[in-house]
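Blinded run. Sample ID left blank on purpose so nobody reads anything into the name before looking at the predicted structure. Input follows.
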Amino acid sequence: MLKVEIDPGSGFCGGVIRAITQAEEFLSGESPLYSLGAIVHNEAELDRLHSRGLLTADSLADVPDGGTVLIRAHGEPPGTYREASARNLSVIDCTCPVVLMLQRNIREAYQRLHSDGRNGQLLIFGRVGHAEVLGLMGQVNGDAMVVEDEAMLADALAKGRLDFSQPMEIFSQTTKSPSEYASICQVLIANGAEITVHNTICAQVATRHQKLSAFAGSHDVILFVSGKASSNGKVLSDLCRSVNPRTYLVGGAGEIDPAWFREFPSVGICGATSTPKWLLEEVADAVSRL
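Blinded prediction complete.
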């Protein structure tokens, strides 16, 4: 008989809960609501919200003049707010408070790096093209270097794109791996960088890394439930797989293979900060019925 446990720490983070709650409150009325980009990187939850009337806009051009647009937890660059104001759009700003603080800190760091005739360098450890990273780059008009991983950093070092004669400051996308961030910073320090390291990974995410490792190691098989576009989902599923090689990434109950559990009775169910609790419960129920 299979023993199934849902990781108590999995499910939406506070920023996502806030955005979805505000969207649902607005959708209880009759006016349409446009989310600027997917409100959450989970296909099943998006389908649920779309059934309630939420529309996803790829850009503000998809939102009619005078309409209402929701800024998701990832945040947006300043230009988005200027354009929305110019077109008389109502804005429901659901930028995560942790991201808002990071945006402000990056603006202040940029001013420090370019004061008193200096020409310092601002680095961001994050996924290239990620919505949060685009919002961060917008705070400094794109004048920052994004480093996605150690391979990208090694390439930048080899091509001389880093000026170690000037001060540097580095920040991390809020949902990145703390251990990967530490490794990136160590490489920079080892190469002689005069660098200020800012701890900007969300505390909720950082704590989850520690607890999730223990959870993954305490079960025979791990089912990690996440949307394909979730950056946090990739980071956390990779973490689980590093602890437990029998980790399988699934989008929902329909992707479960019974062969995974034939010789392994203990199953752990966990997910990303963009994975709803109801989906975790649905997957756990499907496994229990095998």
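Unblinding after everyone has recorded impressions. The first strand starts at residue 3 and ends at 6.
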